[in-house]
Amino acid sequence: MVTLILAALSTIFTIFFVSGINQKTVAAVIGTISGVVTAGFLAWHFGNMILLTGYSDESVQMLQYTSTAANFKGLLFSGIVIGALGAIMDISVSIASSITEIKQSNPQISFNSLIASGFRVGKDAISTMTNTLILAYVGSSFPLLMLYQIHHTPYDKIINNDAVASEIVRMFAGSIGLLAAVPITVFISAFLSYNDS
Q: Which of 98 and 146 is assigned the larger pLDDT?
């Protein structure tokens, strides 16, 4: 919960500081926070459902010896939220900026056409951002996957390993957070752009 609040504050500060307070940034902030909350909820839900412990990373195991009071499961979920924040913020700002530019270039555009344009931009952006997110997570786990391959570890044991399961939850939560941010940002940005004129 603390991570979600800090992510929301970070989003507000970052976007408003970089682009100022206007209808475009308001839409981007709302879309980003919605996507991050979705990613956080899904990470928490699926992580609890598949019994993630948070002890999968070497640095967490070292931290365990110095601080037994730390909530390692909470740290795992906080890392998932923070990891997804950048990608979700990127896609929300891109969509809000695109819709604002479309509306300024064609003030006569209908609300439905503006929404359709926003979804086309979102569709293109989501495919590349999801790939970026997944490849980043796979890239960080590559040595572990190579180790499993060398030792001919069965796939069911690989998937049930806490480290691999954590990365799978990261991928799904982050990707679905991105997917959730797109329609919210599109509708809010189109609504604000259309009513601003």
A: 98
